[in-house]
Amino acid sequence: MKAKGLISLSLALSVTLFPSIAGADSHAHSHSHQEAIDSQGNQVEISDVLPKAEIERKQTFDVPALVEEASNADILNENGVKIGEKVIEKTKGNLLDQLLGQNDSKETQKNREAGLCLFGCSGGGDDGSGSGGGDDTSGDRTATVLIAADEEYRAARSDWQTFTQNIVENADNAFVRDHGIDLEVQAFAQWSSEGNNASEILQDLDQDWNGQGYDFVVGFTKDANFNAGGIAYVYQSSPYGSAVSVNLDQGAENTWRAAQHEFSHNYGLGHDAQGSGIECIMNYDYSYEVDYWDQEHDDEIQAHKAWYGN
């Protein structure tokens, strides 16, 4: 693996502040952010940090997450050496039926939240914006994921591999449902996080684990210096190497919602303005409340779908 240490300012981090612009449209950032060069030479934007959730939601998973396709995931130590393997089984049988029943379409979820399901809302299916529907749980595009958990996270969770796999698989439900994108976990890595804040810890993960051949590298941390719910690189085009993000341990539900938000940044998505009333996971007002995107962001994911996977 690469030597420890943050990307030097002279080589990789040029900070540019973008002040909010009065009268900007509802999809414009209202915060400042950084531009940087990642470890693979991509020009990236470091997203504004996702705030930590104000409400504590489910801390554990009641049932295993829906797994679209089976995989054999490598377990790697901090030096990148394979030390084991985890078999991830495809969801089948009664559990599949149960999980499909819980995976509401976007329109069904909106109706449920608005109190319009007076006579019952059917679960599962697709709202027409993606390729899902029926009992077909697989997407038409599969992107590979390396999960990296830092030393604090691993110390707190002896089941860190299963727990983080469930987070990623829950985060990808909407990607499968609305866009036919399956995020497939193919490796688990031990990571020693360093940094004074969320941005530096993101760059540390980039240095340590980018360039290993996976579409996404997603970190999970309990580092006391990580001052956010999540953070990610925002790309303007298909990156060379992996797309990188980090999420704070906020239990089961809040963390998978944060992970979906950060994966969305990897597809180039920005934020909706707070107070705009736009119900979208990219609006901080709704990031821990909904699992769908507004139409403009749906269109953006579709346009960038080919950036990752096959």
Automatic annotation (TrEMBL):
Hydrolase keyword on record = yes
Tell me which UniProt keywords the record has, alphabetically. Hydrolase, Metalloprotease, Protease, Signal
The molecular function GO annotations come to: metallopeptidase activity
Signal peptide boundaries: 1-24
Identify the domain of life: Bacteria
Q: Per UniProt, what is one Pfam family of this protein? A: Reprolysin_5
What is the name of the protein in this document? Answer: Zinc-dependent metalloprotease
Organism whose genome encodes this protein: Halobacillus yeomjeoni
